[in-house]
Write a structure and sequence with these properties.
Layout (H helix, E strand, L loop, with lengths): L9 E4 L9 H15 L4 E6 L9 H13 L9 E2 L4 H13 L3 E4 L3 H14 L22 E4 L6 E6 L3 E6 L7 E3 L7 H11 L4 E5 L3 H14 L5 E5 L2 E2 L15 H6 L4 H10 L12 H7 L10 E2 L2 H13 L3 H14 L6 H14 L8 H5 L17 H4 L3 H14 L5 H15 L3 H13 L7 H8 L1 H12 L1
Parallel strand pairs: 1-2, 2-3, 9-10, 11-12
Antiparallel strand pairs: 4-5, 5-8, 6-7
Helix pairs in contact: 3-5, 5-6, 8-10, 11-12, 12-18, 15-16, 15-17, 15-19, 16-17, 16-18, 18-19
Length: about 475
């Protein structure tokens, strides 16, 4: 018998455009993207913009920019949920005609009283209009459309992350699927959109797990295939509490502005709730090969900025020198550093050493501060101590003479010449390195002394040393 072709995987990311791209949403998008792209499927984008009072085009653009920055491309044009409201209402009318939904004419006051009565009696709230004659409604009265949810049994969800989850139907009342103002509600719109988009796997936060039961009931009432649900635990702060503004920056663009690379943030988000053995840093090509829903942890993940910095530092170190300079420039300029010809030349020479000292691109300003000091540089406090020791000036004069003869080819050749000088003077290397570092950097953070000399260049380095001798 011929084998039936497996339908392609289709996932979606469906943010609400009311603010920036939260890192929790970015992780959800990443998981959906990896699952689809790693299997040759489609990754779709839907903007859930039915809340027109809070809708913001700036927020839409921020979400799209954030996804693009992270390297998460999508298939086709982003879909507007609001633009499909007529389709949602058509499906609600189909449910009405099939007897699987009904018009509810309860006024707000009647609804509140009925809910209070059901709560007092500890029974499921049910509108009296559920079994009323649909041919005899109040003339001209406004109504909502309610889904006729099953009363008995349970709705079971076989979740790809959470496992088997069962919801007693007695706890799931007849939800409104079209409001009295004619607007479709979230659970109906999501089901219709996911069905029409051909979504096969719904990967989202576990705060939607209760919605999955209601949505499955709607799928079944319409006779539509139910997608695979995968509900991912939310991200918590380092203290274990639900992630909030007090835990730090929440938007992708905030992390970008703090100097994180998209590769670094995405690699960290991948490991935030998903694992592949003991692998700590997983390149994008391996993530596409390895990512699977089975590897997602049920427990909430905790935001750990130290781990994020560690991973981001790895990706900064992996940049080629030109790319590092280009990406670091805005952060240097924000720190007031003017990249004139001399400073740019020093930065180019220092790039291989600076990038290894940065957890974020913003660190480049502090790591490279010694490069951009104005002569004579300020040397005070602890930085001045090595220069006040007996014999410090004599050693620096010897260093100037030795280095003036040296070809400034590499940091290694400069280190070798200073080591040879230490042997000639019969002193430890520290007796040479400490005053030289003070004269060259004024106590600012810096790499090895050979790297400092090489980065500054012969003319600037010798001039700084002579400033302190004289």
């Amino acid at each position: 018998m011929p084998q039936t072709a497996t339908p392609p995987i289709v996932t979606r990311f469906a943010p609400s455009p009311t603010g920036f791209l939260h890192i929790g949403g970015a992780r959800t998008a990443l998981f959906n993207w990896l699952y689809a792209r790693g299997r040759g499927g489609k990754f779709l984008l839907r903007i859930e913009d039915t809340d027109r009072a809070r809708h913001s085009e700036d927020a839409v653009n921020a979400i799209l920019d954030g996804l693009s920055w992270l390297g998460l491309d999508w298939d086709g044009e982003p879909l507007s949920q609001y633009a499909r409201r007529d389709r949602h209402v058509d499906v609600a009318n189909q449910l009405l005609s099939d007897g699987k939904a009904y018009r509810c004419y309860l006024t707000p006051e009647e609804l509140a009283a009925a809910r209070d009565k059901a709560k007092a009696q500890k029974v499921r709230f049910e509108s009296p209009w559920r079994e009323a004659d649909p041919q005899a409604p109040p003339q001209g009265a406004p109504f909502a459309v309610r889904f006729k949810a099953p009363r008995e049994g349970a709705t079971a969800i076989e979740d790809a992350v959470q496992g088997a989850v069962s919801f007693p139907n007695a706890a799931l009342d007849d939800l409104i699927i079209v409001r009295s103002d004619g607007g479709p509600t979230y659970n109906l719109a999501v089901v219709v959109d996911d069905h029409d988009m051909g979504v096969t796997h719904i990967v989202r936060g576990d705060d939607h797990l209760n919605n999955a039961a209601r949505q499955k009931q709607i799928y079944e009432a319409l006779g539509w295939p139910v997608p695979v649900f995968a509900h991912v635990s939310l991200i918590h702060g380092p203290d274990g509490a639900k992630l909030s503004k007090r835990h730090g920056a929440l938007g992708v663009e905030a992390y970008r502005d703090m100097g994180y690379l998209p590769e670094g943030l995405a690699s960290y988000l991948l490991r935030l709730g998903w694992a592949h053995g003991d692998d700590e840093i997983i390149p994008r090509d391996k993530a596409l090969e390895w990512f699977d829903l089975a590897g997602i942890n049920k427990a909430p993940a905790r935001l750990d900025l130290d781990k994020l910095n560690h991973i981001n530092a790895y990706y900064i170190a992996m940049l080629d020198d030109d790319a590092f300079i280009e990406k670091a420039k805005p952060f240097l300029e924000n720190a007031g550093i003017v990249l004139d010809t001399d400073n740019a030349a020093r930065l180019t020479r220092a790039a291989p050493f600076l990038k290894e000292r940065c957890s974020t691109l913003a660190d480049a300003a502090a790591a490279g501060e010694f490069l951009f000091l104005t002569r004579p540089i300020d040397i005070s406090g602890k930085a001045a101590k090595p220069l006040k020791k007996d014999g410090a000036k004599k050693i620096m004069r010897a260093a100037v003479a030795a280095l003036d003869e040296e070809k400034w080819l590499t940091p290694e050749t400069l280190d070798a010449r200073l080591n040879a000088l230490a042997s000639e003077l019969d002193v430890g290397f520290g007796a040479i390195g400490a005053p030289l570092r003070a004269a060259l950097t004024g106590g600012r953070p810096s790499p090895g002394i050979g790297q400092v000399l090489y980065s500054l260049g012969r003319e600037e380095a010798l001039a700084r040393i002579n400033d302190q001798i004289n």
